[in-house]
Amino acid sequence: MISFERVSKRYDNGHDALREVSFDVNRDELVFLTGHSGAGKSTLLRLIMLMEQPTRGRVVVNGNDLSRIGRRGVPAHRRGIGVVFQNHRLLFDRPVFDNVALPLTIAGYDDREVGRRVRAALDKVGLLDHERAMPVTLSGGEQQRVGIARAVVGRPPVLLADEPTGNLDPALSAEIMQLFADFARVGLTVLIASHDLSLISRLRHRIVTLREGRLVGTH
Ligand SMILES: Nc1ncnc2c1ncn2[C@@H]1O[C@H](COP(=O)(O)OP(=O)(O)OP(=O)(O)O)[C@@H](O)[C@H]1O
Q: Which domain of life is it from (predicted)?
């Protein structure tokens, strides 16, 4: 789970990106994070990934108070968080299989385990028959699914996404959000930053709204 307790973030230039933000995302839950450009969504996600430290307040992820994780604990913390980006960030000179395998290869898993887990992840996103395809030959929606498979292949308990449907049309966007909902249903904690109010307000999940760094609503 993810818990923010009166979290404030002031950047070195004096800008207050987050002000006294408190909310929780439970296991089995998908929560949407929304707000205008510059409202603080990316800052909030960066705090969860320990790419930034809060100025005040406490962030707890999977039972760990992040202020107690030293530098040497950061890689293990990040392995517990799958991240999906808007622009996929795929390696375009490598086939789908290699892209999804990347986090496992870096973590030193043996080939058999890599094969097993990559195929399980590709199966979950409906791309099992595309493992040898090169990313350029895939549609935007399929490329985003590869990004999602790569995010979940290490079986992280937490899944974060930053504008994961930004480049997709409404039907594909809805399919991608359904995939995230499926991961929440099997026990992940899922937090998705999205501008796409017309889409997310149709889906029956909690929406946390930021305005100028303050939480202005959760419903
Ligand atoms: N490293 C930084 N140093 C100073 N200010 C920053 C830094 N990163 C972000 N900011 C500022 O903090 C505010 C919040 O930025 P953030 O990227 O979290 O917003 P956002 O809601 O994700 O916006 P967008 O939807 O445009 O990505 C913005 O005003 C931004 O300019």
A: Bacteria
| CA triple 23-30-74, angle to 5 deg | 70
CATH of the domain at 179: 3.40.50.300
> 92: Cβ below 6 Å to ligand 1?
no
- Which residue is closest in CA terms to ligand 1's atom 26? 37
Domain that holds residue 161: 25-38+73-218
* Ligand 1 touching residue 38 (CB < 6 A): yes
For residue 132, being part of any structural domain is answered with yes
ipTM over cut 0.90: yes
Report the amino acid identity of residue 6.
R
- Flag whether 110 is in a domain: yes
Q: What is the pLDDT of residues 20-69, one digit of tens each?
A: 999 999 999 999 999 999 999 999 999 999 999 999 999 999 999 999 99
Does the beta carbon of 42 lie inside 6 Å of ligand 1?
yes
- The answer as to whether 160 is a domain residue is yes
Task: Flag whether 197 is in a domain.
Answer: yes
